[in-house]
């Protein structure tokens, strides 16, 4: 066998091995999650952006369902977090709470057709098992240049050795002449135990 033939055979074998590896890796996350709970719509799109079953949220633990108490939107729980769609604050606004290590992350976006001068984030924590509180502490995020925003993120660290439930919600606001107006109101809270 000539050198050219040997190189061609080796290249073919390496290509075949890579193809099998990539195909297997590409289907691994779908195989680990229950296909009956596959996220769809805005929740599914955000789940995929965050890495799907191998990402920060992990696999879904239940099906997508409507929000309680007559609230508009839907929610789905995952191994490492909670996702809520809040269409009153943006036609495709998705809020996400997830855990990584001893940290609780909260992300939101996008608020189209609305854009804001600032966001107000409320949060609450409790170490009581299986309990969450309506967020009651608040922080404000604004652009230094006064630009309009449609998304954001924030995180908190667990400060207790005891697992802690974190709850978050956000509202977009505009500021003019020292007055703050938040027309669309607060999103439905998202929760995660860290």
Describe the structure.
The protein is an alpha+beta fold and 194 residues long. It folds into two domains: 32 residues; 157 residues, Immunoglobulin-like (Sandwich), CATH 2.60.40. The chain is built from two helices and eleven strands; from the N terminus they run H-H-E-E-E-E-E-E-E-E-E-E-E. The strands form two sheets. It has a six-stranded antiparallel β-sheet, with helices on one face. It is globular. The N terminus is likely disordered.
CATH class of the largest domain equals: Mainly Beta
Give helix % range.
10-25%
How many domains is the backbone divided into?
2
Percentage of β-strand residues: 25-35%
Strand order of the largest sheet: 1-2-3-4-5-8
Indicate the CATH architecture of the largest domain.
Sandwich
User: What is the averaged pLDDT score?
Assistant: 77
Strand tally: 11
Shape: globular
Radius of gyration, in angstroms, nearest whole number: 22 Å
Q: What is the chain-wise order of helices and strands?
A: HHEEEEEEEEEEE
CA(first)-CA(last) distance: 61 Å
Helical stretch count? 2
CATH topology of the largest domain: Immunoglobulin-like
Main sheet makeup = 6 strands, antiparallel
Structural class: alpha+beta
The CATH homologous superfamily of the largest domain is termed Immunoglobulins
Low-confidence stretches: 1-31
How are the SSEs ordered, and which strands pair?
Layout: H1 3-32, H2 41-49, E1 65-66, E2 74-78, E3 81-85, E4 94-100, E5 103-109, E6 118-126, E7 137-142, E8 151-157, E9 165-176, E10 179-181, E11 190-193
Antiparallel strand pairs: 1-2, 2-3, 3-4, 4-5, 5-8, 6-7, 6-9, 9-10, 9-11
